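fyi for ur records
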Amino acid sequence: MTSIKSVKNQAGLLLKNRERELEELCLKIHSSPEAGLDEHKASSWLCNFLKQNGFAVKHGIGELPTAFTACYGKGKPRIALLAEYDALPELGHACGHNIIGVAAAGAAIASTAAVDCYGGTVMVIGSPSEEFHSGKELLIREGIFEEVDAALMVHPGDRNITAIRTLACITLNVEFNGRQAHASANPEEGVNALDAMLLSFNAINSLRQHILDSARIHGIITNGGQAPNIVPGYSAGMFMARARDTGYLETLKAKMIDCFKGAALSTGATLKYRWADAYCKPMKNNPTLSTLFRENMSSTGRFMDADIKNFASTDMGNVSQIIPAIHPIIAIAPEGTSLHTADFSKAAASGQGIKGMLDGAAAMAFTVADILGNADIFKRIIDDFQQSRE
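which gave:
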């Protein structure tokens, strides 16, 4: 049997031969940012690229038009590489999802060397709208992950981190309906929906000092009225709640809604609210997968911090609750550069961004080779996951 080292060398050559194409695709997606569930161009470009490289592609899976699977090989183990490609409103790819999507595609193509040698299946799962709709959870509910044995992805950041600690996160949409009136001639006839939203913000701010340090609440006003001389008859906002575990998230949700109910009672406005149907769960890192990835990344000259670090929220946490998974962070920007900023968006199209994408693709492909080429390693990965559930 061909040695794993030899297979990794073949994988590295496959990746090397497509570096130019991968860079062009990464920059192309970056220059055409699309919001969650509307990533038609990015999804199509990734699917076409994978199809041209021998993958069997299914587009529009799980009743999500921009979701897809791209498979190579057959049988077990089935290893998934997760692609994200949604952008943020106004800021574009300020979370670097162009890098995530293309790294997954590059790793999948490089992993064909291991599939051809050892058997098994490598697949890319294109999961839309990580930012706002927890697309991976929606795909889980549609059974897309039922036959998957393990899942890997990389996320760009400002440090090289092997494993992350994340918060459960859910989105809340809020509306207040009041009554319009002339703000000067007859304000007494109005019910100010904007005042209700502002009172809610103040109540949330007061609540923050009485919740766990690890929890988070934040939000924006998406509609605050039409003109300063009209009592606003309608206001709307979007909020997010985060907590270390789903139990405290439920506690936090109840406390938040009390803030909005109190504001409605104070102003006379009518409250309507809706929690998102899907939400992010905490990340459960697989130790064996994490160690393999860290060791394989060192072959690129990049060295990963082995300690678990805090990292906001991700719907990869939902995947990690049902199968072995990892979500390492690859530095593409100077330490201290925050995600969701214009500076990070620039980094996602920089030379360091492209290098991070290629390094991440290589480390994932080499890790796939370890899994497919060594039954003992695959067993340890599964054992780790089973123990985490006990």
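The mean pLDDT is 97. thats all i got for now
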